[in-house]
Design a protein that fits this description.
The chain starts with 10 loop residues before the first helix and ends in a 12-residue tail after the last helix. It has 12 helices and 7 strands. Strand 5 and strand 6 form a beta hairpin. By secondary structure, the chain is of the alpha/beta class. It is elongated and about 80 Å long. It has 2 domains: 174 residues, 3-Layer(aba) Sandwich (Rossmann fold), CATH 3.40.50.300; 66 residues, Conserved Hypothetical Protein Ylqf, Chain: A, domain 2 (Orthogonal Bundle), CATH 1.10.1580.10. 32% of the residues are buried. Strands 1, 2, 3, 4, 5, 6 and 7 form a 7-stranded mixed sheet that branches. It is 43% helix and 12% strand. Bound molecules: guanosine-5',3'-tetraphosphate. Guanosine-5',3'-tetraphosphate (G4P) binds next to helix 7. The site of guanosine-5',3'-tetraphosphate (G4P) has 16 residues, from helix 7.
Length: 289
Amino acid sequence: MNNYQWYPGHMAKALKSMREDVKSVDVLLELVDARAPESTVNPNIAELAKGKIHILILNKRDMADDSVTKRWLEYYKGKNINAVAVDAKSKEDIKHVNTLIDRLADEKFSGADTRLAKAVEAVGGKLKDRSIKIMVTGIPNVGKSTFINSFAGKAGTRTGNRPGVTKGKQWIRIRKGRELLDTPGVLYVKPLSEEAGMRLAFIGSLNDNNLNIDELALDFLKWVIVTYPGTIIDRYSVPEEEALETMEAIGAKRGALKRGGVIDYEKTAGIIIDDFRNGRLGKMSLEKP
Ligand code: G4P
């Protein structure tokens, strides 16, 4: 059976709730994984973002191949899509996002002829006095919570479960004229192909409980040996052979053995996938434009 089957699960429900949230928002920050932007982008967002500022944030750029990320940014520029690559944990990168939002908001909302400006004027306000509302969205594990924490900075410090603190969604005033929704919009994607599903599984955006981890690690080894030769030799000091032989060599080297000295495939697979997901195999990209 195909290991990367799609489980629709909460898809429709998530979309419905997102449609509701989006109504009060001016800026949609859509997080994708810089290592696989195509497979982690949500096809529904373009429609949800109509009339709003939509920025594609290629997150985890620190784990992706820099030259490939650069090509992705050029690709999006060519398509007139606002895109920026970030490491959610970098203050400098968060600044870049803010600068981009400021520029786009200026372009969009300063013209007195926009419908929004007219509406605000009609109720006696000035658009520049109004807060720009921002929302973060993306599929699981692309770094939404991490990004929100960095983006909100001190202002966004969570107050935890203290009694009296309002639960549910809140706007965090991140600075003058900017408010951020404290909870991200979680969306899911239906992989367009088996390869796309595999990439989602590699980066941890599919539910691991539904995956066969041995198969996942074998597919990963097949891919990495061809795409980034030398990676496995450098990390594990074993030769790069067929995926199965390589996996057995890694298991033996790392002492992932069952009773009687048999290779523990599951444990070995876990080591490999964990190393990749934590960036210990180096910077690599799964997709090129
Ligand atoms: P989510 O809300 O979209 O589901 O993602 P979340 O922020 O929980 O991030 C998922 C994992 O990705 C976390 O690692 C987080 O630290 C990591 N991460 C998020 N953004 C970046 C980034 O720009 N660069 C790197 N290198 N990692 C990033 P974790 O191992 O699950 O948790 P933790 O041990 O780091 O807390």
